[in-house]
Amino acid sequence: MTEGEVLTDTQEHILDAALACIARDGLDSTSLRDVAREADVSLGLLGYHFDDRQTLLVAAFQLTTDRLLDQSLASLDGISEPSERAEAFVLGAFHEAFLDPDYLALRLALWAIARTDDLIGQTEETYYRRYSSKMIELLAAALPDADKRDLEERATDIIVMQNGLWLDWARHGNRADLERGLDRCVERTRQAVG
Predict the structure, then answer these.
(1) CATH number of the domain bearing residue 174
(2) Is residue 77 part of a domain?
């Protein structure tokens, strides 16, 4: 799958099955046969859509990163004030669907495998660039006189805080800690645009 390529319903169904297998069984234990069984499709149909396990895994992780970015972007709908748009974007990545333990397992697997697998690493890097570029764009709208380097640093500060929250939520699942952390992220975003 290439960036921007539209998935068929069958491909998305297979990828959702792959993601379920990865979340349940771990990346190393997920085979094409397991994914076909989970998707209730033949191994041949799976092979028709995805050349091999690597292609399937890259596409599955691409789908999960696309969904996260899409939700973050959707959080901007109906908001016109630049500083409020930046805050909404930050909070959009913490939509309830992304706080699910299975989703968190996928994010952690993606981060881990991105260090050793070039194609999945490229998928994660592409997502990061797209997300941080949007964050910089939103901060620039709120701070039209800020220089590029300053905007990049502010965006990085916010993203680092978000990633820390992801990890803490995945490890402890403490709602009060998450809410407090999100408040701090929003506070940092307000400082970044103020």
Answers:
(1) 1.10.357.10
(2) yes
Task: Using the CB atoms, write b or e for 56-68: b if 16+ within 10 Å.
Answer: bbbbbbbbbbbeb
Q: Where are the alpha helices (DSSP H) in 75-174?
A: 82-92, 101-114, 118-142, 148-172
Nearest to 12 by CA among 32, 37, 39: 39
Please tell me the pTM assigned to this model. 0.86
Both tokens of residue 166?
A: 């992801």
pLDDT band at 2; cut points 50, 70, 90: low
Give the span between the Cα atoms of 95 and 89, in whole angstroms. 11
CA 149, 159, 118 angle in degrees (round to 5)? 95
Q: Answer whether 127's CB lies under 8 Å from 107's CB.
A: no
- Does a structural domain hold residue 155? yes
Q: What is the pLDDT of residues 93-137, one digit of tens each?
A: 898 888 888 888 888 888 888 899 999 999 999 999 999 999 999
CA atoms within 13 A on the CB side of 27: 19
Give CA–CA dist 132/125, Å, rounded.
10
Determine the structural domain holding residue 180 and report its residue range: 58-193
The number of folded domains in the chain is 1
Note whether residue 70 is domain-resident.
yes
Please report which confidence band the pLDDT of residue 5 belongs to, taking 50, 70 and 90 as the band edges: confident
